[in-house]
User: Fold this.
Amino acid sequence: MTGTAKLMHYDGGSTHTQIGSLSLTQTLSPETGFIDDVTTVFSRTKTKTINHTAINGDGNDRYYLIIESFSCTNNGFIQIYNPTPSKTITINSSILNVTVEFSAASHSPSNKITQLAPAGLQTINLGNATLENDANAYFRTDVEGEKTIDILGETHVTGSIFVREREQTSPSVRIGEGPTSNTTNILIETDGNVRADGYIRAGTGDSNGFRLGTSAEIVYNSTPSPSRVEFTAGGVSGPEALLDTSGNFHAKADVVGYSATISDVQFKENINPIESALFKVQQLRGVEFDWKTDYNDRGHDIGFIAQEVEGVKGLEPFVSEHNNIITDKPAKVVHYDKVVALLVEAVKEQQTQIEELKSEVQELRDGSSE
Assistant:
């Protein structure tokens, strides 16, 4: 008989590569004589070990076995009959059937296996001795163990996953988009609470963060300097307020609420009355003006000019500079609350002058009456 057994590799596309081969060519000789009118069966087994390195790096190598150009011929097998001692009959033998089959094939190490047992099902692909290595993956079910379903490796689910506790209808968690229009683009939804011992992290930039309803948003924006958390309430086109990493809070409109400025003496030293308060007030210029450019919606207003205020010696703390929430550029602001302390001392100085003038006027009156 002649022929070849081949081990082939298939790349999943159109390429089939021979990995190894085994010659089946062999001459078969009868081990015992033929028995009259009986079919004699010959059986031979061949084995071969092939050392081979997997071709695909993803572990998805496909192999198969083929028999090529197999044939079996009679090269002189005959049957000899001796019916009587005086006469011999010779007849050519016929090959009635030839069967070639693969009785066993194994891979060493055996890194892929699927098993069904009373406890559950498991399908495993092991490519590294360390269990949680990237080369390993498995899916296991074990109705008797701690983990009913145990998965190692990437898991892809088409559709949604719903999770709840036993014998409970709420709270529940859905992972994946819902079936109705009002849940589109919601990837995780729960009617309970969300707790995290670490961070709940959202991306950076104008399009990432925490969305509250359909028009409110909280995002962390690292593009400006300093970086900031932006708050949007009336639409997601731009922030209405922000808190930067320097601790400054900015709002486009008024900040309404109760505020108590820390003024406890325990936090202060080098305490002195404001000197020449009235003189400093006299150098200030209160003006009327119209807002322009990015603030023209505020119309007509009154106040100070920040650059003029900081130009008065001793009033430098009245002015500071911060990144403007609308222009995203540095702009000066006036701390109007500090003006109160200046005015108090200025009024006291003015009252002292008034009292002195009143005293002088009284002395003049008293002198004229004599």
Observations:
- Residues 163-195 form one domain.
- The first helix runs from residue 277 to 283.
- The chain has a mean pLDDT of 81.
